Structure formats: C-alpha cells, structure tokens
Amino acid sequence: MGNALFGRGSDKHVGSKESGLEIVVLGTGAGATHIYSKESSSSFVVLRDGEPVLLCDMGYGVTASCLQHVGRVPACTYISHNHGDHAGELPLVLAVEGTAAAAAGRPLLALLAHPDVMAELRGHRLRELHSTGRPLESFASFHEVPSGTATPVPCCGSGSGSGSGSGSGEGSRNSNGCGTSGRGSSSRSAAPGGCGLSVRPFRARHSETCYGLVIYDEGRPVLGWTADSGYDEELYTALAEAPLVLVDARAKGSAEHAGFSDLARIVSLPALQGRQLYVTGYGRQDEAPRPADGVPAGVRLARPGLRIALQPAPAARAEAQAGAGASRAGCGGAAGGDEGLQGRSKEAAAASEAGRPGGHAFEAGSGGTSGVRAAVRV
C-alpha cells in the first residue's frame, strides 16, 4: 500500500538497477524489533550505479535484509555505535566474509568507524573473534574515521558474494588496496578514494558513544544521518549541510531517541528549511508515525526496500557551508556543529525557474530489490 501521508508527489516504481547514487533502506527496527518481530534493525546501504558500496550499521537482521534487497554485503561498512541493533551481526559477518575472502584471494571487507567507536568495537563487540586465535586484522581492514573532516571511503568495489547470487570473474585490487569481486563493479572503484564517496562523523546524543555522519559524493554533501540520537538541534544543523537527512525518532522520545512529537521542532529549524526529512529507527512497521501523532506535512517515512536517489547540494551552498561551519566537538551529545545555511529561498527560486520539481513521494518498499525510488530534488 502506498504511503504519501507526509509528503506530496506521485509514487514511482523502478527496477533493481539504477544509474547514479542512491540508498536502499534495509530496516527501521529499534533495539528489540528483530529479536521479537524478525524485522530488520535500522540500516541502509549506499548504491553506486546499482552496485552496493557502503553499508551503514550491521545490527540484528541487517545482513539478511541486505542480501534480499541488494544481493550482497558491500565491501565497506560504517558502524555508528556498539549497540546490538547497530553492530550485533558484525563479528559473525566478519568471520564468514573474512574467511571467504582469504580463501578466494580477495581483499578483506573494510570496517569504518569513529576512533572512539572503533575502540569499543575492537575491545568488546569483536572480542569473540579472539577465540579463533587469529588477529582481528585477519578478518577485516580497520579504518578510523575522525570527526571534523571528511574521510574518503577506502574502497567501493563489490563485496563478498557469500550467500548471494552467482557471479563471474576474478577479484582485483584497486589503487586503495581494496578489491572487487568481478561482479560488475563500477570503474570508480579503481579511482583514488574508491568511488568518490567520503564520510564525516558527527557526535549524536546517545548513552553509547555514537556518531552519525554526512556522506559526500565527489566532495559535495548528499546525505545526513543522525544514527541513534535524542533531540539535538546542533546535530540536525550540522547534518543539514546535505539536502536529505535521515532522522531517528520513536513514538516516545527520550534522552537517547527523539520522539515523534519532536519532529515539528526539527523541521522548523532554520537549517532544515528546504531539506528532505525521512524518519527511521522507529521500530516495527506498525509502529511507524501517523498523522495522528502530530507529524508535520512534508516529513517522509523510511520503509524497508525504499530506494532514494541522492543528488548533491548546489556547489555554492556546499562551499559556503564548508567555509562557515565550525567543527562539531568530539565529546558529548550537545557539542557544536556547522552553522545553519543561508539563502535557501533564493536557491529554491532558482530551482523553480530551472524547471526542477520541488517535491517527491514514496510508498513502502515491496520487500524485494525493486523497491520504490524517491528522487530528491533541491
């Protein structure tokens, strides 16, 4: 059933292969969602020209959803924090994929995280791998991603095909030391910095050390993501550098998670004007926000299988943001962030004059790789 409750436009169905950059939502689950209801934890995967290149969080149920919707685990994974619904499947997946990569002569999967999060993953989440007698570096390559700067994603080739569809061709190693599995990888995989993506973490307001991020394509912001976070105006302002923002919100807000009642405040923030806002992390699909919850018009729902095309912010705005924004501090959930953006109304008027549509709609994903695609217009 279509869902355009909080947005305008017409639904658009597409096939499994799309050109350009997009994300596929893998799940919106909260802490107990997968354990009790079997729906995937909150996660999404970035695709370049239809190929999965970056997975964001690997909590309970995410791997199966990733295989279902995009066919394989991508070569790179970013972990926001060490809670089970965001990193619970990481040890087993690294063990399986690392062993398969070693046997096939392929490079290991790349694991990205803020240095503080990486220390917790290595010291706690991945502790069970010590029982193998092998060093952690035999399961994955570890890449610390500091806050305050954008770090290139180390590789964007296809990931291991374990549990996925068949493919052909021998693996190859790109200029970053990362590899491809010979399954239709983009030519960008061999370029410095992988496929042109980079990530910049921002501290979220959460009990566990947690970092959301902004994703950049060729240096231009395309997506902001809070990860798990309580209401935090400075975080939202920092992420609004991108034209689309994924926001964590649940029916009942807390110090660790924004509530549906906070969404009206979020969309009214000056920096969020003109941005596309999607809600995720709310739990099961029957726990998704509804108009009766007071969710403002224009807010959209992330649903498993939903495909969202990413388009960069205008160059002038991105450059102004980079020049004027102050670095968000690396401690506490209320640390500083990039300043709000100015001149949005002028850009909107220019977009209107250029004939670009100003909105889009979506519906719940169909549960397969066809999903639903929503083009983000700026």
From TrEMBL:
Bias (Low complexity) = 171-192
**Domain of life from the UniProt record:** Eukaryota
> Could you tell me which residues belong to the region Disordered?
156-194, 326-378
Q: Where is the composition biased (Gly residues)?
A: 158-170, 330-340
- In Swiss-Prot or TrEMBL terms, this protein is called Metallo-beta-lactamase domain-containing protein
- The protein's organism comes out as Chlamydomonas reinhardtii (Chlamydomonas smithii)
